[in-house]
Write a structure and sequence with these properties.
A 3-stranded antiparallel beta sheet has the order 1-3-2. The radius of gyration is 18 Å and the shape is globular. The longest helix has 23 residues, at 132-154. The protein is mainly α and 155 residues long. The chain is built from 7 helices and 3 strands.
Length: 155
């Protein structure tokens, strides 16, 4: 989810890491907070994957001793953003929450793709309303798979 939010923000144009942190905290609300110690390693990882690039601002624009970095999305980052936007299979139990994150950035996908995402959400809601036991069973199976993967990664 955070990767999508970061790439989505950069789709609008280059911004500072501090502003990325502030916007993410505004989005996720008072329940959780993103610290700079959490954000900057993620930004570095996105740089390593060539999804974003960082530019250090000129000394005249800097305030104090800190180097201000402006982050910008690359073409590979735009492709990854599109892939994340169109993904309807990851995190099935959390999909409605992810959908609302995606809806904020619909302007960057084709109208037919927007309709596909909306149709998928409506279908999930239909399943939940008319077949709640199947929906909850699928959600439980997904959570069990997720736990298995996490356990394997820890080994």
């Amino acid at each position: 989810m955070y990767e999508l939010i970061i790439l989505s923000l950069l789709m609008r144009g280059p911004i500072h890491g501090y502003l990325i942190s502030k916007i993410i905290n505004d989005i996720i609300g008072p329940v959780a907070k993103v610290s700079h110690g959490w954000l900057y390693p993620r930004l570095a990882k996105l740089q390593e994957e060539d999804l974003i690039v960082a530019a250090v601002e000129a000394k005249e624009k800097q305030q104090g001793q800190r180097q201000l970095r402006t982050y910008e999305i690359t073409e590979a980052g735009r492709k990854r953003f599109h892939q994340l936007m169109m993904d309807t299979t990851s995190n099935p139990g959390e999909y409605p929450k992810y959908f609302w994150q995606k809806a904020c950035f619909f302007e960057y996908v084709h109208p037919s793709e927007r309709l596909h995402l909306i149709d998928h959400l409506l279908f999930r809601i239909f399943l939940l309303l008319h077949h709640p036991q199947n929906y909850h069973r699928q959600h439980q199976q997904w959570r069990q798979r997720k736990r298995r993967v996490i356990r394997q990664c820890r080994r």
